[in-house]
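Hi W., the flavin-adenine dinucleotide complex you wanted:
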Amino acid sequence: MAQLELPALNVENGPQSNYQAYLSALRRSEFSGDVEFSYASRLAVATDNSIYQSLPQAVVLPKSVADLKIIGELASQYADVTFSARGGGTGTNGQSLTSGIIVDVSRHMNHILEINPQERWVKVQAGVVKDQLNDALRPYGLFFAPDLSTSNRATIGGMISTDASGQGSLVYGKTSDHVLGLTSVLVDGTLLESSPMSMEEAKKIAKNNTATGRLVKQILATCVDKREQILAKFPRMNRFLTGYDLEHALSDDLSTVDVSRVITGSEGSLVFVAEAKLNVTPISKHKALVNIKYDSFESALRHAPHMVAAQATSVETVDSNVLNLAKQDIIWHQVKDLITEVENKEVLGLNMVEYNGDSDDELQDKITLLCSKLDAALANNEGGVIGYQITFDSIDIGKIYAMRKKSVGLLGKTKGRKKPLAFVEDTGVPPENLADFIMEFRALLDARNLNYGMFGHVDAGVLHVRPALDMCDPEQEQMIPDISNEVSALVAKYGGLLWGEHGKGYRSEYAPAFFGEELYAELRKIKSVFDPHNKMNPGKICTPYESTASLVSVAGVKRGEFDRQIPIEVRDAFEPAMSCNGNGLCFNYDTTSPMCPSSKITSDRRHSPKGRAGAMREWLRLLANHNVDVNALERNAKSQSWFKRLNNSMGKAQSTDFSHEVLEVMDGCLACKACTSQCPVSVDVPTFRARFLSLYYQRYLRPAKDYLVGNIEAMAPLMAKAPNMVNFFLKQGWMNSLIKKSVGYVDTPLLSSPSLKKQLVGHQASRFDLGTLQALSAKERAKKVLIVQDPFTSFYEADLLSDLVKLVERLGYEPILLPFKPNGKPQHVKGFLKEFAVTAKDSADFLNKILPLAIPMIGVDPSLVLCYRDEYKTVLGDTRGNFEVKLVHEWLANIELPNKGQSTEIEYAFFGHCSEKTALPESEKHWQQLFQRMGMSLTPIAVGCCGMAGTFGHEASHLEQSKGIYALSWQKAVAAFESSQILATGYSCRSQVARIEGEKPKHPLQAMLAHLS
Ligand SMILES: Cc1cc2nc3c(=O)[nH]c(=O)nc-3n(C[C@H](O)[C@H](O)[C@H](O)COP(=O)(O)OP(=O)(O)OC[C@H]3O[C@@H](n4cnc5c(N)ncnc54)[C@H](O)[C@@H]3O)c2cc1C
Ligand code: SF4
Ligand code: SF4
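Structure:
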């Protein structure tokens, strides 16, 4: 019989005793970084983008090279303690996963140490993100060339350790081609500085009985003595064999030796990379991208080598599956004009062909030549070419690549339980063999009736393929080794590699076959001198020479093994949390992107959509193991008695209930909904967060602030009856202290005075009467506009609503205020789901009653208007009805606007609300167009979240984070303008600017009104 009460989910599997001893010693030492071993912290790094899951003992987050040395020095005293370094955690094959300790360099060791533009090099710490580096280099006209799809979250340490590369690798090479020197730390804490040295010097060092001497001696013994075998064995491909790169550790003429080349691609199995000196490349000034459309994917593949022959800098390809998924994604609105449909034809393959040139003339010559060939192919119906488009605009080129970079994530959107998985996703074969190889690869997958999408770097012979499987089904799990074996044999047949790009990880078991017995033994000897006791990422790439330890294997423990413990109905009900595939896009470092402000401000993987989805899955799994039917618990929606909740809450501090850890993780979420639309698989945290809160508080007492927020819509209209009196109290210092202490609420906003009611007294806009409106003719109704009130605008920004009334009138319409009806959003945010359902039903019923009038309904605040579209649908289903509330700009888009001629008055800066920008990606553009139509100037400003997010920034416990988030992108952007220029669409955003800068920005509609006045 299933339990119908939420139990305490005690988790007592903390670090093992030897690890506990090590971690205690680390804490007692001079180590200055963080040491974390809460269950949620460990879970947050128990997965990457692969199919595997492994819970580490702890996470340590060093701040310096000295910290890394301490980690190593202490480790020598604890025989069984092992490590895996971690950066962005975007590996696709479990590279960073471990049951030992994760050493995460991404949180603190993320500084760019020196840029030398004259000599074209840069020195960075290992945790620097690739896009972060390129943003810093851009002003110098330079960039770090190896490109990878995960560039906005993958770290330099991770790139070095997997020898990452990607688009443009034919010209720009791989990461190892750009490493000038490394500062690394060996597992015993020894510091290792490596850069190319002469053969003579290397031989001299090899004679020393030091750690470095022994390394160099072994590298010489392997790479010099076995040179012939190495050259014979490794394919001569752009994506040469890495981990460990025995060939390139020596220069072609054998005059120099470079230990860094052995470390590059070693997947953390040799050293901790602490710092790197990297070569950087001038940004090409002249670029063009030709998007060639084909009648089939095979045509695109077969055409690619001709593009390479025609001197293309890079050729990227996507198949129709990926294209179709992109068309349904938020990303498509940016590229749809650059990849238009072809009349009467279907685009089933696309090659994105980039050309760079030192001069415009050189570029034009190359493009002209290509176009003449493409025109001929089109005229003669050859090669499956059905159209092409060219763009020279670097921003547009960036947009197309952003779409391509999102391909993996897009595949994750595939509906149903079978999800595209990484395990044979980066095969590399000589490009001339690619088309034939892919045809056989497809046949292999088709024979199993598997779905898959394909895209990749056709110029380098690397194709990304992710077959869709349900890892909760043990039978389908068994296909992983079967398919891996077959694909491994297929790449060998075509002279290629199983790991053309993403490294080995759990596929290391295939390494002996690829290296061959003799060279694999050499690999193990190298491992022995770096890491004799197999403590560095054990099981990856190889084990020390003559050790009996085993390699990790594709049959290793997978995430599916945990997920399948959750009943299928629960998995379906919590699909967004289940479908996170760990690709890490939510760690996006770009502060101007709306994606996850809480992740950015905390640099804590727990506080990201991925961390939250992972915590939620584990919570569901533990509940299932406690025989709790979560769906029934939700349906029942009954809290335990007040006394029981009090009792449970009193023991909270001592309790090991995992629910508290999940609560902490959920509490940091701003419910901004960026993840809902920006995550490629739409991991909608606010929805499952609300459901979690609702269940959690069945067992525990709620804090007072939740009731304050949950009831704000009921209280605000009452308080607005006497705004001056309420404000008088709110302005008193003692009152603020009292509210802060008792409710945990700060900077309580003041009510509007005079109130909206007073401002509109006697105005026809305040005379709503349904019967009167129903009695009007259609023509009379066509002139009316109904304004849907929200609590924030109506009671705290009454001027804005009055201005909306005036604007509507100026535009020749008759505004009518609908009576205030609570929207319910604050209840939803705090997880009062039962109450939210009632509010939503009441509001929806009312708005549906208005619907037959066919009068447009408009609302001002984006997050509340969008709630009608999103949360209402989830909670009410079909009973939501068809009412539609438009945002102001959506209504303005379809009406005539007066243009008083080009205005020179003010150049406005537009700061969009992040929920609006992510849910309605064209909203900024639409506001800009509206302003243009009225002869006004408006420039959208790239900012992330403002940090206020409804009431989040008013909660004392979040105050510091809220201000920190504002400082990430808004502060500087706001400072760049006069306050009169700044326009913001969100009530929260305006409040946050007012609180921090002392002046409240206007809403764009107010600028329009001023323009017309
Ligand atoms: C959607 C998607 C697209 C991808 N596209 C590409 C692509 O285009 N090209 C490409 O090359 N790869 C790609 N990858 C794979 C992955 O992003 C790269 O391997 C990347 O270099 C990993 O960087 P990271 O910081 O996330 O490293 P992590 O995943 O954290 O670690 C990767 C490996 O490096 C080791 N490591 C990390 N930091 C250190 C350090 N400081 N010292 C020692 N070892 C360390 C880890 O132990 C692990 O073995 C893709 C992955 C995903 C999910
Ligand atoms: S939450 Fe979304 S973006 Fe983040 S790792 Fe999961 S799937 Fe990727
Ligand atoms: S709603 Fe916003 S803060 Fe919360 S997880 Fe999603 S992106 Fe992060």
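The chain has a mean pLDDT of 93.

W.
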